[in-house]
Amino acid sequence: MKVLVTGFGGQLGYDVIRLLEQQGVECKGVDVGDFDLTDGAAVKAYVTDYGPDVIVHCAAYTAVDKAESEPEICARVNGVGTINIVRAALSVGAKVVYISTDYVFSGDGDQPFETNEPYNPRNVYGLSKVQGEMAVRSLMTRFFILRTSWVFGRNGKNFVRTMLRLGTEHPQVRVVCDQVGSPTYTRDLARVICDLIPTEKYGIYHVRNEGYISWAEFAEKIMRKAGLPCQVVPVLTSEYPTAARRPLNSRLSAQSLKDAGIHPMPSVDSALDRYLQELREEQILF
Ligand SMILES: NC(=O)c1ccc[n+]([C@@H]2O[C@H](COP(=O)([O-])OP(=O)(O)OC[C@H]3O[C@@H](n4cnc5c(N)ncnc54)[C@H](OP(=O)(O)O)[C@@H]3O)[C@@H](O)[C@H]2O)c1
Description:
40% of the residues lie in helices and 17% in strands. The protein is an alpha/beta fold.
């Protein structure tokens, strides 16, 4: 099996390549320097030349707030870019893994979203990820769509690292307490990707660490586990305005993974412990 992974310079792509290499799988990680997703001819030329059996498409425009002021660029990267990946995959007979998000849903209510619930994105980024999903679903059959949420990994900016920085700089930090979801460690998500790609278990999956939690509760865990004395002050979303509207309910049901017989994702606590250990070992923060 030969695997091409886009977004190698980002959080998830980096860990997918690390795990594939550990497993001895032939693989290549690519980023903007190798080809721009929005350039269909460049994508096709690269994919044809490498000839993968699987493309794990982690690259995306992920600046959720900035997307509100540049919707065309966001749609081009996440929508058109994904069409380009799918067309190139079809031309070499490769399967595709598309990484999507809880932001494709409305975020209404307090029940976990199942994989078959209707799209209803509430911000530009969410809409662009729906466009990416639609490209995959309408053009091919051998695909895995993995929706995830609140991602953190070694290779990039994320909420955990922001809290660790703020926790060393300030005695107090205000964090929203009415948005609830599940954080996701890229190493755990990478493991599910690597479990799925050799199979024919195509379809849509929700993949996130186990347990629902608010951002404020998550911040509290981060401070305590990192031994930082910073106080977390819970605030409402209405008190913390951002350019992009964010869903209050980011709960993704884990039923799809269970049904497929994939080993369940570890708890949020376990994920955070291992992530902090990884940062310490690599002397990234402490
Ligand atoms: N982060 C989250 O909380 C979250 C939540 C749910 C779902 N997701 C999804 O999970 C996937 C992985 O997220 P992540 O956090 O690993 O993302 P990330 O760290 O932002 O990495 C995305 C990568 O895509 C690359 N990229 C952007 N535009 C490109 C283009 N036009 N051509 C080629 N490469 C391009 C970026 O390169 P540059 O850095 O050079 O721009 C970056 O290396 C994405 O599909 C994202 O939508 C993420």
